[in-house]
Design brief:
Largest sheet: 9 strands, mixed
Structural class: alpha/beta
Keywords: ATP-binding, Kinase, Magnesium, Metal-binding, Nucleotide-binding, Phosphoprotein, Transferase
EC number: 2.7.4.1
Helix content: 25-40%
Cofactor: Mg(2+)
Strand content: 15-25%
Radius of gyration: 28 Å
CATH architecture of the largest domain: 2-Layer Sandwich
Pfam families: PP_kinase, PP_kinase_C, PP_kinase_C_1, PP_kinase_N
Distance between the termini: 53 Å
Shape: globular
Family: Belongs to the polyphosphate kinase 1 (PPK1) family.
Number of helices: 19
CATH superfamily of the largest domain: Polyphosphate kinase middle domain
């Protein structure tokens, strides 16, 4: 049934939508039903997310804020007003964060016999142990820098915690020696192996200290010639230098570049500082770093709460989520040497992290060793530091295979690892393609060519997740192994584009930036036409982010035609559901649980012949227009049934799902059976893994 059209459709501000998502993360930290150490982990995720947000989004808005007034006006929303609104909300959330830690987490730790102690809480025996630990494990890791006239500039690493030391009251002051000295030293968390030090237990009581406080406790040992040493903490966040083209393009982009070139080349930063820091110390830091007052942000005694990812487990597994060991795949072989045989037989859906990423590395390793395999092509977006995927590609190169690797050097915060492996592969003889000018390669594809009976046969792996063994353990993604020529031929065409830069058209794949937007519009138009004809019409979208204005307006148009739309959005969503005349047929939910939901799914009713796509692309302008993305159809009926079943579990979740206002959906009917989608997914895939696996025919 068509609805009355709203002449002025409204959208939610992107920045506030992202902050609403991060508040869902904080809700998990506040939830007493979440195991205690997992709540601490969600505190770390919240903090880490906010760090990245300031490095990218806030820094970008501050750069846009410096543009001329006429240029700013063409951006649509005023960056100054956006900054004001988001910083207000950040302040509210940070206050809630601090209250959660002090009033919920800390008391609960004590109830569980875990004591996070400072240098002021130690017994004499503990203090003696800490002094000994400092001398043997910490002291040699410290590199103090004296802030005096000999130091012209102090460079602070991004996101690293530093301790400032004010030395005063010298025991025996020498001639020409200052009564006070200011010293800075980097907190050596990485080299130490952890931000935390676990003290000896006392009965059933556990004691943990920040590494910061271990140094505070022992700092007089470093500077015995001074009677007083005051220690405070600082942390600098730098502009991540995200290309502004991620936000705007075209003629406006040229104007902005021209405007920015006339301004200072220095980038903005924020310096978090302990409010108890002496004024002369803060002044010295500002002078030696060039930080201005506008970059100062009052923090607390401790910075980098994300280090709580490494909080010790203390041998208490009951304070963590139950263990979910990776499940064997029901249709893929469990022994080496059979992957290509199984893929030749049928399509297989890999569900990470419930099933092991080892199937991907086995696929590549077997291809690398197979004498009939002639070539391997892979896109690498985020590469693990100790990448088994990259090692398999090195092995393939050594074995004489033609190896093509598309490495994205603009993958935010993973540039260093990507460059490392790109250089190693290039030296080994692989054909390394360093992305596409003006585009970011975000698709996740692997293609293997094998000579069989004199013919070239292709095998492919298409995924929503990266070729990364580490993130595959915490990101919930789907991957498809297939030898279906409809799909493998077109994957080959995508790699052809990487080689010759000539745009292609595709029959089965939806590929950005060429056809993805237009084909999505056509699929939506099909549902609009069905709705207007009085037939069932629906769209189900599972995305990380829904931000593109044109796609949102298209969904509003479908709503007004009577199309039923369900949205499962993990992060940003600028669409406002439930508005009469605009979105009354649109429902929206978001889920945060132990794994990060990362898969993207597009489902269209298609008059009873449902179309299901799995994709690397969110519905953001950057994904649809400025990235190479691939959405692939699920053609195998059994795999399509599995994808839909898993999607339906998420649609039914009433434990971890919230509406777009962050209200838990399960609270409406407490008597309804509880469905927790991620746990139900594991149980479902576990039941499949116990079934007898069909025999694989030999090639």
């Amino acid at each position: 049934m068509e609805s009355t059209k709203n002449p002025h459709p409204t959208l939610l501000n992107r920045e506030l939508s992202w902050l609403t998502f991060n508040e869902r993360v904080l809700q998990e930290a506040q939830n007493p039903d979440v195991p205690l150490l997992e709540r601490i982990k969600f505190m770390a995720i919240f903090s880490s997310n906010l760090d990245e947000y300031f490095k990218v989004r806030v820094a970008t808005l501050r750069r846009l804020e410096k543009l001329k007034k006429k240029t700013r006006a063409k951006l649509g929303e005023d960056p100054t007003q956006q900054l004001h609104d988001l910083l207000q909300e950040v302040g509210r959330q940070q206050q809630a964060f601090g209250e959660t830690f002090r009033n919920q987490i800390m008391p609960e730790l004590r109830r569980q016999h875990i004591h996070l102690v400072s240098e002021h809480d130690l017994t004499d025996a503990q203090r003696e142990w800490v002094h000994d630990y400092f001398q043997h494990n910490v002291q040699d890791l410290l590199s103090p820098i004296i802030l005096d006239d000999n130091l012209h500039h102090l460079f602070l690493k991004d996101q690293s915690v530093y301790l400032t030391l004010l030395l005063s009251e010298p025991v025996k002051q020498k001639k020409h020696e200052d009564e006070e000295r200011v010293i800075v030293l980097e907190l050596p968390s990485k080299r130490h192996g952890s931000r935390f030090v676990q003290l000896p237990d006392e009965g059933e009581e556990h004691y943990v200290m920040f590494l910061d406080d271990v140094i505070r406790c022992c700092v007089r040992m470093l500077f015995p010639n001074y009677q007083r040493v005051q220690v405070n903490a600082i942390k600098l966040s730098r502009d991540a230098e995200l290309d502004i083209q991620e936000e705007v393009s075209g003629n406006l982009m040229a104007k902005i570049k021209s405007s920015l070139q006339k301004r200072e080349t220095g980038y903005p930063a924020r310096l978090l500082y302990d409010p108890a820091m002496p004024k002369q110390v803060l002044k010295a830091i500002m002078q030696k770093t060039g930080i201005g007052k506008e970059e100062l942000v009052e923090g607390s005694r401790y910075h980098n709460f994300r280090d709580f990812f490494g909080f010790p487990g203390l041998g208490q597994p009951e304070l963590k989520y139950p263990d979910f060991p990776p499940l064997p795949h029901p249709t893929l072989p469990r022994t080496a040497g059979k992957m290509l045989d199984a893929i030749a037989e049928r399509d297989h859906l890999l569900n990470l992290p419930y099933q092991s990423f080892d199937y991907v590395t086995r696929f590549l390793n077997e291809a690398a060793a197979d004498p009939l395999v002639t070539s391997i092509s892979v896109t690498l977006y985020r590469v693990a530091q100790k990448s088994e995927v990259a090692k398999a590609l090195l092995k393939a190169t050594k074995n004489g295979k033609q190896v093509t690797v598309v490495v994205e050097l603009k993958a935010r915060f993973d540039e260093e690892s990507n460059i490392h492996w790109a250089e190693k592969l290039q030296k080994a003889g692989a054909n390394v393609i360093f992305g596409i000018p003006e585009l970011k390669v975000h698709s996740k594809l692997a293609l293997v060519a094998r000579t069989e009976a004199g013919q070239n046969r292709l095998y492919a792996y298409l995924s929503t997740g990266n070729f990364n063994e580490v993130t595959s353990q915490i990101y919930a993604d789907h991957g498809l192994f297939t030898a279906n020529p409809h799909l493998t031929k077109e994957v080959g065409q995508v790699f052809g584009y990487f080689l010759d830069r000539q745009p292609r058209s595709f029959e089965y794949l939806l590929v950005a930036p060429f056809e993805l937007r237009d084909k999505l519009n056509a699929l939506i138009d099909r549902e609009i036409k069905l709705a207007k004809a009085g037939k069932e019409a629906y769209i189900i979208l599972k995305l990380n982010a829904l931000q593109d204005e044109r796609m949102i307006l298209k969904l509003y148009e479908a709503n007004q035609a009577g199309v039923r739309i369900e949205l499962l959005i993990r992060g940003i969503s600028c669409l406002i559901p439930g508005e009469p005349g605009q979105s009354e047929h649109i429902q929206q939910r978001g889920m945060v649980d132990r794994y990060l939901e990362h898969a993207r799914l597009y489902v269209f009713g298609n008059n009873g012949e449902e179309k299901v796509y799995v994709s690397s692309a969110d519905w953001m302008a950057r994904n649809l227009d400025r990235r190479v993305e691939v959405a692939f159809p699920i053609l195998d009926p059994a795999v399509k049934s599995e994808v839909r079943y898993l999607l339906d579990l998420q649609r039914q979740d009433n434990v971890k799902s919230r509406d777009w206002h962050n209200h838990f959906l399960g609270q409406e009917d407490p008597s309804a059976p509880k469905i927790r989608a991620q746990f139900a997914t594991y149980d479902y895939l576990k039941s499949l893994s116990k079934k007898k696996k069909p025999a694989v025919a030999k090639r």
